[in-house]
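User: Here's a structure from my thesis project, written as structure tokens. My advisor, Dr. K., wants to see whether a designed sequence matches the one we expressed. Can you design one independently, without my sequence as a hint?
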């Protein structure tokens, strides 16, 4: 993301994002604006599956859908992860965009579009790590893998450790999340 001129200021982006129809989700990473593809049935089912697992294992936490976060080291990027895990009612009283402090994990489920590779697999780990979010959980439907990014690097961006599992394996989301997931069912939610 370094070495490019931002398309617009953060303030301009927030104005446009706020005015966009509810059917359009906009994000801005490092000054680049992107349109996040809407949820298809399988993608939203995966998020619902994860909500149930989190609530069963950690009822004192909430898994927020589409929560707007100010991310990267300087809070200049704006992302809407598919889900954000945080303490119960953590974002109550917040506006459209929140600081990531208190977020324990962000989750992205890949969509079937050309921007998924650039945004979900490459740029988002960088900004989420810079923001200091403890875990980035990528559910990658194309490769049928689950990537658990841990130990954020606020200086460089990204995460120092990435563990990869295949759909069907048991995945441990380490502390501060502390949840173990049986992912066999995810095999049925891919093309």
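Assistant: Designed independently from the structure alone:
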């Amino acid at each position: 993301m370094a070495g490019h001129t931002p398309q617009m200021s953060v303030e301009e982006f927030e104005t446009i994002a706020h005015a966009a129809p509810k059917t359009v989700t906009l994000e801005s990473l490092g000054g680049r604006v992107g349109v996040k593809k809407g949820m298809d049935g399988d993608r939203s089912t995966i998020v619902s599956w994860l909500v149930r697992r989190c609530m069963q294992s950690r009822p004192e936490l909430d898994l927020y859908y589409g929560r707007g976060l100010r991310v990267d080291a300087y809070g200049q990027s704006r992302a809407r992860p598919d889900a954000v895990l945080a303490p119960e009612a953590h974002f109550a009283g917040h506006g459209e965009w929140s600081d990531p402090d208190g977020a324990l994990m962000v989750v992205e489920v890949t969509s079937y579009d050309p921007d998924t590779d650039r945004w979900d697999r490459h740029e988002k780990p960088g900004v989420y790590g810079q923001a200091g979010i403890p875990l980035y959980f990528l559910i990658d439907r194309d490769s049928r893998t689950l990537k658990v990014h841990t130990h954020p690097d606020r200086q460089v961006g990204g995460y120092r450790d990435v563990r990869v599992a295949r759909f069907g394996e048991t995945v441990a989301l380490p502390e501060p999340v502390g949840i173990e997931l049986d992912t066999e069912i995810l095999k049925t939610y891919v093309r």
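When you compare it with your expressed construct, this may help: Residues 38-189 form a domain with the tt1808, chain A fold (CATH 3.90.1570.10).
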